[in-house]
Amino acid sequence: MSGPALPGALRLGLARTGIELKEFFRLRETVVFTFSFPVILLFVFGSVFDAELAPGVSFAQYFTAGMLASGIMLSSFQTLAIGIAVERDEGTLKRLRGTPMPPLAYFLGKIGLVLVTSVVQAVVLLLLGALLLNLELPTDPLLWLRLAWVFGLGVAAGTTAGIAYSTLARSSKSASAVVVPVVVVLQFISGVFFVFTDLPGWMQAIGSIFPLRWLAQGMRSVFLPPEFAAMEAGGSWHLGATALILTAWLVAGMLLALRTFRWQRHDQK
Q1: How far apart are alpha carbons 18 and 16 in whole angstroms?
Q2: Structural domain includes residue 230
Q3: Are strands 57-58 and 52-54 parallel, antiparallel or unpaired?
Q4: Do the Cβ atoms of 134 and 96 come closer than 8 Å?
Q5: Nearest 5°: CA angle at 121, between 88 and 169?
Q6: How far apart, in whole angstroms, are the C-alpha atoms of residue 226 and residue 56?
Q7: Of 82, 78, 84, nearest to 38 (Cα)?
Q8: Which run of H or E residues covers position 57?
Q9: What is the spatial distance between Cα 43 and Cα 40, in angstroms, rounded to a whole number?
Q10: What whole-number distance in Å separates Cα of residue 180 and Cα of residue 167?
């Protein structure tokens, strides 16, 4: 006689999300860094650079959009690229692969972790920005709808890219060294720390290849006035290109993850 049927992948994925969140919030250093780092940077840059970039557009307003985009990349790409590499090196992935749990449930758990932490981080950033730096939040429901799809595509692209990129780290010790410098460089060339159009042309061209540049611009289209679009590269928000490029990274990350993902360390077969 066959045993009881296993729960479906979706139900197991939800259960796995709960486990991932518990493990995440037990790591106090990681929690503090993930949620406080964007807020600290926003407060520092917003306090130091108090000039207006354009009529009615403070640097804090501009920088908030960039930090929202950067926070998504930290919560998705960086967290997963490092975390999965550590789990692989410690043998956690190998043990999970040996259980009846379908692989899809594991990835759904990671998606749930990224989604929850990204939303919490964004809410904290916006609330503290509004309270401490007089950040003006959108009043048009359509802008909140735009925020939702830009946010969702950014999370999805960062998640699949992080899963795929985790394969490059050959051990848990090298994971941070392989991932963090990439994230830092992307922040500098994607209009997070500086106004994107103030960067050299060649730097803008390189930054435009990667999703963070488009994610940051999509966020600016939500939090900055429509007139500021004229100061963007090409004189437009380029929302269609934003959707297209973030979707392309989502698909590319998924295909790479399916092709290269490993459940065991590189020195194991």
Answers
A1: 5
A2: yes
A3: antiparallel
A4: no
A5: 20
A6: 11
A7: 78
A8: strand 57-58
A9: 5
A10: 15
CA distance 207 to 188: 9
Q: Is residue 241 part of a domain?
A: yes
Q: What is the pLDDT of residue 24?
A: 87
Which of 92, 96, 53, 45 lies closest to 195, judged by CA? Answer: 53
Q: Is residue 117 part of a domain?
A: yes
Are 146 and 239 a contacting pair, CB within 8 Å? Answer: yes
Give the domain range for residue 248: 9-260
Q: How far apart are CA 114 and CA 95, in angstroms?
A: 22
Query: Rounded to 5 degrees, what are φ and ψ at 55?
Result: -55, 120
Q: Cβ(123)–Cβ(71) under 8 Å?
A: no
pLDDT tens string, the chain, 269 residues long: the values are: 455 556 777 888 899 999 999 988 887 777 777 778 788 887 777 777 767 777 777 778 888 899 999 999 999 999 999 999 999 999 999 998 888 889 999 999 999 999 999 999 999 989 988 887 778 889 999 999 999 999 999 999 999 999 999 999 888 888 899 999 999 999 999 989 888 999 999 999 999 999 999 999 999 999 999 988 988 988 999 999 999 999 999 999 999 999 999 898 766 65
Q: Say if 2 falls within a structural domain.
A: no
Give, rounded to a whole angstrom, the gap between the first and last alpha carbons of the chain. 34
Output the pTM of the full model: 0.91
Asked if 193 contacts 199 with a C-beta cutoff of 8 angstroms, the reply is no
Total domains in the chain come to 1
Amino acid at 145: L
